[in-house]
Each structure stands twice: as structure tokens, then as C-alpha cells.
Amino acid sequence: MSRRGVVATSVLVAWSAGLGLLLVRELNPSAAARLAEVSMRVTPVTTFYAVEDSGRHIGFASISIDTVPHSLQVTEYVVTESAAGERHTDQLMVRLSRGLALKEFESTRTSGLDTTRITGRVIDSSLVLSRTGDVQTVPVTLPAFAGVIGATVSILIDEPRVGASSSIRAIDPQTGQASMRLARIQAESLFVVVDSAVADSSGRWFAVHKDTVRAWRLVASEAPAIDAWVDAQGLIVQERLSNGLLLRRTAFELAFENWRQAHPERAVSVSADAHVVSGTWLASGATRPTMQFDSLRVRFGATIPREFAARYGRAYRAGGQQTFIRPSEARLRSRYKLPTTSTWQSVFARELAPGPMVESDDPAVSRRAVRLAGNEKDPTEVARHIVAWVHDSLRAEAGASPVGASGALERRSGDAREFALRTTALARAAGVPAHPVTGLLQHEGRFYMHTWTEVYIGRWIPVDAMLGQFPADASHLPFLPGAVEPGPDLARILTRLPITVVGAVKAP
User: Which residue range is the domain that position 183 belongs to?
Assistant: First the structure.
């Protein structure tokens, strides 16, 4: 064979080998490639559920799938009231990459006055678990999933059909244990799902529009077990929980408002007129806010600017809904001790340094911070002391000329911004990272411009010295961390923001 023939043959063999590899990859894609394809079909949406016990409506639930910068976040929320009047709340937040790689999860369970919390974070091939102060690292093989996103993947990864099965690695959020779970599709059926409701003269809600949804029953007996009907979008239509309770998808008003009427002492409907007041509650002459909320769900109107949703996520789009949650006591446990190392401080250099209006290096501020901190090593307790002192020492006063932290210390009065600046400066002087936050405060159905503080104790926690709240409740809607004023562009949007409260649960 000539030299030219040898070259041609080599090229043909290489081309054939490459084509063969391409066909193998197409016919047998990797797990990462399959998940990346599934992630493109995950629908960002919030679904609502009535929680039933033997046919009795005893609570409500929601599952929210939202896209945040570089991540997909799934939040599950279930609240029930027992016959004895004891409240039970379960919340699971799972964050994944856009390719559905698990990054972290946080499970918080509250029963009466008892709260348990488990967090997990995936680092390389390890799962770092934190449970009531104990931290352990266990090896984990990826991909792995926690919560209902596992059911979504099981349905979307292949065409659903009765008898089909899929194996995924599932993490039990209550124990942190990971195991392979074989989920099998046992049946297929049609469901009639309510998607809108109307209230009668008594205030009770009734269905006005229903959709027919095809769903498949997905069952897995291995822990964490699942018995749920899932539609073609991977969304739960109906689920039987491990404690025997039934979640049934329906309109928000049927799930929440009807339950609220049966339990008015726990869930309240805030009378909201979709009105944002350009000033603070103090400057507007409103009464001092006293009612606190564990959760607040709002709906945004049809005239939301597109850039607003682009900045804050799909839940902030026109017609979108967003739930704000008050941090539980379990989230107030600090993850570090004072004093911190110089390396640690360099990570939070911006949140520890003095700045305009935040004179944490002022001698008077530093001396006060030292007195308030004392010998305390727990940053949570130091921040709690600071919030209490600022609340007791400053007088709420509207209309005074704006001053910074040291000016507020000297004048001993101010509006919300002075309370926030003073808290921020004292926290930084004590070695606790902090920054002011600008947003809206829901009060008696209206939304007022407001400023408060976030302190870092291993996670960012909102606190409000003006209202004496540690932590700040769910009526605080944050929009601009690190600033005491929204700026002209955001202020223009906020003051014209069409927003309505559609449900709230007040704190016990």
C-alpha cells in the first residue's frame, strides 16, 4: 500500500473510532450529562397543599422550586396543628447547582417549644453534617438528593411508565444518612386539581376552576421512604408522609385560608391593600408594630419591572409569590467563638471594618462594645446584648437629621437607620460581622420603608434593635443588604411595588 493509502486508512480509522465514541456517549450518557438534561426540564414554581389526617384539614404545606444565582433552591414547608393545639413545623431547604449537584441542605423541625436542626454541606466527596452542635464528616457518593427533588429526578430522568424503576442516592434530612433508594412506578392515574378559588359571604373558600393532571405513583420503601403521585413535570400532586398525613395539591386559598379560619389563634390573614408607603412607619404616624410573624407570604402584582425579577429571582416576577420565614431558635446557634483568628477576620474584612456612618473604630463605640461583650465568647449572645442595649438606649424619633452610629450614641435618638447603624457599628467593634439591610416592613396591612441589621454567627441572621427583635420576624422583607437607603432606582421601584399579603402565620 502506498504512503498516501496508509495515511487515508489511518484517517478513516481515527474518524470511525471517534464516531464510535460519540455514538457510545449519545447512547450511554454519563450521570452528569443525564442530570444536566433533567435540570433543563425542572419547572420553577410554587405548589400548595392541604394537609389532611383521616380526611380532616389540619394544616397546610408548600413546595417552592426557584432559580437563584448559579443554583436551584427547593424549599418544603409543612405546618400542622394537633387536636391538643400543639403546633408542628417542618422546613427543608435544599440547594443544588444548575446541573442538579447537591450543594447543601438544612432541615428544621419544631414541635411545641422543641426545635431540632440538621444541616449538610457537600464538599468534594464528603458530606459535612451539623446536628445540635455535633459536626461529623461522612463520605458520600454523588449524585445524591435530599427531599422531593429526588422524586422529581426519578420521574424526569426517563419517560414515566408503570413498572419502570430508577435508583438514586437519597439523603434522609432527619438523620443525614445517605443510601441507594429504588423507586418504582406502581400506577398511573388522572387527578382533578383545584388551581383557583373564590370566597363566599362567610369568608370560606371554594374551588372555581379545576385542571385534570396525569400522575404516576412513585413508591420507595428504603429510607427515606416515599409514596407520592408525581406529574409529568416532576411536581408532587399527592403524597403520603411517613407519619400518615396526606398532602393534597390545591389552590393556596383552600390550603391555607380555610385552615386559618379553623385555627385563628395560630394563622392570621393580614388585611393588605397592596400599598407601599414611601416613608417609615414612625414618620408616617403609624402605631408601633407589636405583632410578630413566623412566616409571611406575599404576591407581586402584574406591573413588576422585569429588572426586579432579574435581580431577585423568578419568585419576584409579575404574579410571583414569595414566603419570608423568621429564623428559628435552632438557627441562632453560633458556629464560631470569639475572638476569631486573623485569617477568619480577613474573610469578613468588609463586614468588620469601619465605614461611612458606621464608625466602629470610634473610641466611644469601641468602649461600649467591650462593656457589652464582657467575657462572652458566643457571638450570638454578644449580638443579643448589643441589640437589647441599642433598643433600650435609643429613643425612636422621626424627622431628626440623619446621623451615623457615633452621632446616634451622642444624641441617643433616631429613626430606623440610626438604630441599624448603631447596632452594626457595635457588632463590628465587638468582632461580630454585621451590615445594615434596607427593605420593607409589613405592618397592619401596609408596607413601610425600613432598615435593620444582619449579624453573622455562622449564617446571616436579621435583627431589629428598633423593634427589639432578636431575630427579626418574617414581616421584614430584605432587598438591599449592606445599605441603609435603597438608592433612587430601587426606591422608585419599591414605592410603586404592587404587593399583597396572601397569608401569614403569627409567632406563638
Answer: 39-259
